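We modelled the chain as a single entity of 863 amino acids. Its sequence is:
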Amino acid sequence: MTRSTRSGVLRSRGTLARTAPARLPPAGLPGLDPAWSRLVEVVDGAGVTRTFHVLDGGDPAATVGTLLCVHGNPTWSYLWRRLIAEAPAGWRVIAMDHLGMGFSERPDAPRTLTDRVDDLSRLTAVLGVTGPVVTVAHDWGGILSLGWADRHRDQLRAVVLTNTAVHQPATTKGPILIRLAHRRWLNKLTVHWTPLFVRTTTGLSRPTLDSEVRDAFAAPYPNRAARAGISEFVADIPFAVGHPSRPALDEIADAVTTLDVPALLLWGPRDPVFGEAHLRDLRERLPQADLHRYERASHLLPEDAPGYPAVLRDWLSQLDDAPVTRVTRTDLPPVLDALSRRRDDPGPAVVETAGAVLSWADLHRRVEAIAAGLADAGVKPGDRVALLVPPSIALTVALYAVWRAGAVIVVADKGLGLRGMGRALRSAQLDHLIADTPGLLAAGPMRLPGTRFAVRPPSAVVTRLSGTRTSLAELERRGAALPVPADTTPDAEAAILFTSGATGPAKGVRYRDGQVRAQLALIGRTYGLTPDDRIVAAFAPFALYGPALSIPSAVPDTDVTKPGTLTATALADAAARIQGTVVFASPAALRNVLATADGLTDAHRTALSRIRLLMSAGAPVPAPLLTALQRVLPHAAMHTPYGMTEALPLTDISLPEILEAGDAAGVCVGRALHSVQMRVIALDLDGEADGPLIDEAGVTGEIWARAPHLRDSYDALWVTNRAAAAHPGWHRTGDVGHRDADGRWWIEGRTAHLVRSASGPVTPVGVEQRVQRALAGRDGVAGPVAAVVGVGPAGVQQVVVVLTGAGPVLADLALTDVVRAAAAPVEVAAVLIRRALPVDIRHNSKIDRTTLAAWATGTLAGR
């Protein structure tokens, strides 16, 4: 097709351009240095001299390479101002305006995809770009930058993409906003004749962009003539197969799969233009790409994540680093080894307190058959499978069947709520999901991708509403006659487990098979677990681990997303049902067990007297609580392991050891377990921990850990993973504490909860403990719970103590004086009273000091 014919096609849509010369941006645009702007003449493919506006900045020496930045529609090179201002040392940064856009020349005919890739190639030649080059692109600039990359592979060093698409996935019809703008009359009304399209694009950001910045993005497009290029750009997006630019798009999209250079994807999941299907397509075409999802970011990621230049600098700095060697233990038995060894055992493996019992023999048979059925239904090794099933026999069978099929389980807390769960599960790039009826019906509103499998045969209505393919019962029936998939290797991905979201959006934590094996071995060794034990788990993961530990398990009749609802009767019923010997429950659950213990019968007390071991974790467990529980569990050894989703357990301590340790600054969590190493990075006066790892008693700092069962990485969070693995092989726990001279570790709080005062950082836990001890003796009754937060700017924050209780929000002078005396030498600016403190979702125990600090700030400000 000739150029004139192509132009005719575009003109027929009513988007005829108006000519105008290139010009420099007006002075005073926020963040834009006029010294960066230049006008560059280039002879285009038709032999016509065109003038581009280009931002050219960064390191004038440019000894390392060039960052070639390509904007999309309807923005301009202003999008990359932060990257130019914060350019990596040794890198030149070039950001051009496409012809017809920004402050480049308005030509007399529309530009097609092929024209624009050619324009970019000719411009870099005139600018003397020879490589190495890293392309950085957003929106439809992604396909243009990749077209340039394909033509200049000899110069290409890496590619960076933010919210874009190189092809339209078959699973979607295309971004609805762009499809609407593609319609001729809507294009005229919203894109060409009015500034609606321009203004809507910058209006997508959250938090809202400053009005001066929004005006700067709109500055090149003050009238209908200036917006002609935007209208033509939209019209040239080739959704339809017969579109003139479709062959060029297909050619570039296919070429992307052969790019063997490093890639980085920075993504805003709240984007209404480019969604999860586009991200999945990019990851399939660029499997080597690192990915970081900015969960609160929308379409204009360079605006919504203003810290991205630092991320890009860090990513570029490690391009030539040798990969970190992961040491995986291969001497441990497979996760499903216990099921194979007990395949003929008629004894109970999983017990439901309502009455259902699944034997070891039936568990093995069902897991094998369903795994074969899943494989036959298209579940491949490495596929990710979300489990939306409450703790039950069905969940246990589903989990082990997924593992037996070689697939990866993906688990997020129901307590995150529909929105939080959906955000988390979408980030995991699901291939399939297994759910009960509520989970199947919730999958649609959560916008979850993947094949649907029902736990039980669903009704016709549920099948139609949810798009369910089949049930595990049907897969079991079909799989009974099929071969079982091969065993997984220790390096195979096994699980994506989401954190509780207590300190921000829940993070996906990736585990490999070998790390799960190491975790199981450590738990078994630490607590002397044997096949004669039986675990009652009020925390679902430990019930699910029961079969892998060769231990029968049961979950009490309670809502696992609300641990504080566990009653002593429910715990005793579960213990009696399974003849339990081990209990795992969070502190919140144990408090309610203690509070409801008067309702226990003699039969209940007999069942609980068989418990030999109690484990409680998720938050500090006070010694008085454990001591009081001794009358409910008279023969139980009380233990509190310390760890997190990324590594559990790391340490352990018993009640006698807690009492022996006495009072100090923090919560004593015991000594590091076998195969676990722990170190600190000392805090400086600003509360930062950026120094070396040290092994020195009495030094307060951020705690780091290393162990064979440590998580592999964070999923889809390159930035987070990079920060957490700054010391290769170690995990940054985010906790602050110290080791004493006897080798015991003390937790003093979270790094995110440090009070950064003018005299240095204040760790909250020690102050809270001193206050609570001072108040506990008042009038002979237990005192309130105390929480320490910082109010004000970092570096000059004031310490505020919040107490639980009723009455005025501002504590009276007498109570304030007691608190201040107990907190000394830390100076307390104010004491507030609140009926209840916000706590985490998973354990209902950890104080959400970030939320509490915001409340305290607003309260003291009179809001």
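As a brief sanity check on the tokenised model: Residues 1-17 have pLDDT under 50 and may be disordered. The longest strand covers residues 49-58.
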